[in-house]
């Protein structure tokens, strides 16, 4: 796993614009090298702002969107179209504005999905989809970029401090009794997050400053600050605005 690199931007708008430019470049490079690109999206204010900035960028047409595999790091266990779903925000910000191939948009099921109101079965269904995309012997694809938000409690995806999912080795798990509503979710686990070539942690605002400090401090216990375990195979970026970076040394 790679050690994190910290990049600080003046405010959330500049953070979103810079991250969007970086994402477009990374996708285009991956497509040039391998024909396709694989990205994992996140919700939250910063994550959605990045997607909106991608949609607004003149460079968005440098990407062949029909050859982008789209995944999610976590999802609220709500029906399709529910405003609380990360998918809903991603579609409104970006996916409804670019010619993605619907077969390559890998949505985490909700209670209106084939498994009904059973988040464990829905998580296993998503895990099976990840395994199928990974090919022979793999548990998950080698994502090119996996984006994560970070909560004030230093959670990433829906991996919250002290919860059982932190220790789970399956590709995706159901999360119950989340301390942040809604209580039921589906999340990738650490083995899946760490399979990504690049992991980007996005944070904007003063409410994230303490969590960012914990996540970057040497020797932080992942059970206390799950973001400390968010690392990519080749590269890890913490993309911050000045408020989120305010408690970092120097």
TrEMBL record:
What are the transmembrane regions? Answer: none
Domain Glucosamine/galactosamine-6-phosphate isomerase as annotated: residue spans: 11-235
Q: What class of enzyme is it?
A: hydrolase
The answer to whether UniProt assigns keyword Transmembrane to this entry is no
Task: Kindly indicate whether the keyword Zinc-finger belongs to this entry.
Answer: no
User: What keywords would UniProt list here?
Assistant: Hydrolase
So, what pathway does this thing act in? Carbohydrate degradation; pentose phosphate pathway; D-ribulose 5-phosphate from D-glucose 6-phosphate (oxidative stage): step 2/3
Q: Which CDD domains match?
A: 6PGL
Per the UniProt entry, the Enzyme Commission number(s) are 3.1.1.31
One GO term in the molecular function aspect is: 6-phosphogluconolactonase activity
* Reactions the enzyme catalyzes: 6-phospho-D-glucono-1,5-lactone + H2O = 6-phospho-D-gluconate + H(+)
Tell me the InterPro entries matching this sequence: 6-phosphogluconolactonase_DevB, 6PGL, Glc/Gal-6P_isomerase, NagB/RpiA_transferase-like
Q: Which GO terms describe its biological process?
A: carbohydrate metabolic process; pentose-phosphate shunt
Q: Which family does it belong to?
A: Belongs to the glucosamine/galactosamine-6-phosphate isomerase family. 6-phosphogluconolactonase subfamily.
PANTHER family associated with the record: 6-PHOSPHOGLUCONOLACTONASE
Function text? Hydrolysis of 6-phosphogluconolactone to 6-phosphogluconate.
User: Under which name does UniProt file this protein?
Assistant: 6-phosphogluconolactonase
Q: Which organism is it from?
A: Actinomadura meyerae
Q: List the lineage, top down.
A: Bacteria, Bacillati, Actinomycetota, Actinomycetes, Streptosporangiales
